[in-house]
Amino acid sequence: MNRSERSNIILATLAREGSVDVERLVEELSVSPATVRRDLDGLAERQLLVRTHGGATRGSLAYDLPERYRLDDDGAKRAIASLASSLVSRGMVVGLSGGSTTDMLAQMLGMRADLRDDTGRAALTVVTNSVNIASTLAVRPHIKVVVSGGVMHPHSYELVGPFAEATLGQLTCDLSFIGVNGISEEGVFSVDEESEAVVNALIARRARRAYVVADGGKLGASAFATLPAVPGLGLITDDAAPAGMVSALREAGTEVTVAVAAGALHATA
């Protein structure tokens, strides 16, 4: 395992748990304490963590770790993103909010060979308020990237506020995919910040068809800000989602599609 791979694991653990310690990392990474300390010192120099006596924390850093520093091998998110990608075809305008699953979806769209040709013209347009997603797709000449204006949220790297809302309000998408932090049995979706809730709902509303993309762990969870209602908003999740929650959502009128690791899907309602 090289230093970059170790750093990804360290940062993913830090993003998930808020702190790491040297002894645990030595065991997980199968390297010496000196190697772990050097890795932590290097990440601290890049201001990606705060060193402590026995390890590191996020400390008082005023941001969450960017998605590009997190592990991208989550099987559930990959299955969801793959299914969402299969709904996208050439010539579409696709709206994407920020989030780890939408970021993975953007990566998949960027790598799809069927969206590239020899003309040099964009075969797909992606509208996003996510700085991370815009950066991911910037090197893909077959994808036209439209970025909303707005103020960058320090925790999610999403553009929010009146400028974002004004830009997105003038656009129409064929499909939109948005991320959330919580989903109730009644089909109420929530995120951590009220400004993101407004913009995410707007991205969904400006599409002819819109889906929340969220792994099963989000079902039954709740977050601070509820998304304004979006008629017909569907959900794409994975097969780890609690069956009772899936049934309750369908009974409440939410179309739920369940992706499995092999890329197949369960029945929808």
Automatic annotation (TrEMBL):
Gene3D superfamilies hit by this protein: 3.40.50.1360, Winged helix-like DNA-binding domain superfamily/Winged helix DNA-binding domain (1.10.10.10)
GO molecular function, one term: DNA binding
Protein keywords: DNA-binding, Transcription, Transcription regulation
Signal peptide: none
Matching Pfam families: DeoRC, HTH_DeoR
Domain HTH deoR-type: 3-58
Domain of life: Bacteria
InterPro entries tied to this protein: Carb_Metab_HTH_regulators (IPR050313), DeoR-like_C (IPR014036), DeoR_HTH (IPR001034), NagB/RpiA_transferase-like (IPR037171), Tscrpt_reg_HTH_DeoR_CS (IPR018356), WH-like_DNA-bd_sf (IPR036388), WH_DNA-bd_sf (IPR036390)
Entry keyword DNA-binding: yes
Listed PROSITE patterns: HTH_DEOR_1 (PS00894), HTH_DEOR_2 (PS51000)
Protein's UniProt name: DeoR/GlpR transcriptional regulator
Annotated source species: Galactobacter valiniphilus
